[in-house]
């Protein structure tokens, strides 16, 4: 299990990190909300634990930001603020559970396992080719763990290529599926958007996944050169 812990109390961090790692889990730590936001949105976690009273960006704000980008990752709030209003606000912003300090580590561990179990495998909805991942539900795209921001049209094009990875798609087929229009041989809109996509998905990386098949169209290969 890969866990993100966003907590500014060193003693709490030390105790939880040691406990989770002894149980065989991987733990990333952020001591403020801004770093927590960066880690949460640029990596994949099985669960995220958030304190509320964080520097720079509080736990409620961070929970809302994460939930806007990822609808499925379990979020557990871990805080000394234990009023009903505190809990209701957290749940309304997208938290899945709320544990009030002080707490017993065994109970926290049980809650973490229960949340992850209920969430199920997070990769089932994803389309994957090599180190490229696209989640059609959350609209999140990552390559080599790095978050990639796409426009709606670029996302639709990449989604199509991944759905048909290792298959050559002609320009007319791409135009019909992505733009819902009959292909005009006088337009280069498909080529332009393939180039946009390559600049974001391929150019910053060593391996080029999107390939041109001369006279036929484009293909996204799981194993480039195959």
From TrEMBL:
A Pfam match: Response_reg
Domain OmpR/PhoB-type intervals: 124-222
Name of the molecule in the record: Response regulator transcription factor
PROSITE patterns for this protein: OMPR_PHOB (PS51755), RESPONSE_REGULATORY (PS50110)
Positions of modified residues (4-aspartylphosphate): 51
Species of the source: Hymenobacter wooponensis
UniProt domain Response regulatory: residue ranges: 2-116
Entry GO CC: cytosol; protein-DNA complex
The keyword Transcription regulation appears for this protein: yes
GO molecular function, one term: phosphorelay response regulator activity
Keywords: DNA-binding, Phosphoprotein, Transcription, Transcription regulation, Two-component regulatory system
PANTHER family: REGULATOR OF RPOS
InterPro entries from the UniProt entry: CheY-like_superfamily (IPR011006), OmpR/PhoB-type_DNA-bd (IPR001867), Sig_transdc_resp-reg_receiver (IPR001789), WalR-like (IPR039420), WH-like_DNA-bd_sf (IPR036388)
DNA-binding region(s), chain positions: 124-222
Lineage of source species: Bacteria, Pseudomonadati, Bacteroidota, Cytophagia, Cytophagales
One biological process term in Gene Ontology: regulation of DNA-templated transcription
């Amino acid at each position: 299990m890969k866990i993100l812990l966003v907590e500014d109390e060193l003693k709490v961090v030390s105790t939880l990190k040691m406990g989770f790692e002894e149980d065989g889990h991987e733990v990333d730590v952020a001591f403020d909300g801004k770093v927590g936001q960066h880690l949460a949105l640029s990596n994949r976690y099985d669960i995220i634990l958030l304190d509320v009273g964080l520097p720079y960006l509080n736990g409620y704000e961070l929970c809302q930001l994460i939930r806007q980008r990822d609808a499925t990752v379990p979020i557990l709030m871990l805080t000394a603020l234990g009023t009903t209003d505190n809990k209701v606000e957290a749940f309304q912003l997208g938290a899945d559970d709320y544990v009030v300090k002080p707490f017993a580590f065994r109970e926290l561990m049980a809650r973490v396992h229960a949340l992850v179990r209920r969430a199920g495998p997070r990769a089932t909805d994803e389309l994957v080719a090599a180190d490229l991942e696209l989640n059609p539900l959350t609209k999140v795209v990552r390559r080599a763990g790095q978050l990639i921001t796409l426009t709606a049209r670029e996302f639709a094009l990449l989604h199509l290529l991944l759905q048909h990875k290792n298959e050559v798609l002609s320009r007319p087929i791409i135009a019909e599926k992505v733009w819902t229009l009959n292909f005009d041989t006088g337009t280069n809109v498909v080529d332009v958007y393939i180039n946009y996509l390559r600049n974001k998905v391929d150019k910053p990386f060593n391996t080029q996944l999107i390939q041109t098949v001369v006279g036929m169209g484009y293909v996204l290969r799981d194993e480039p050169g195959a």
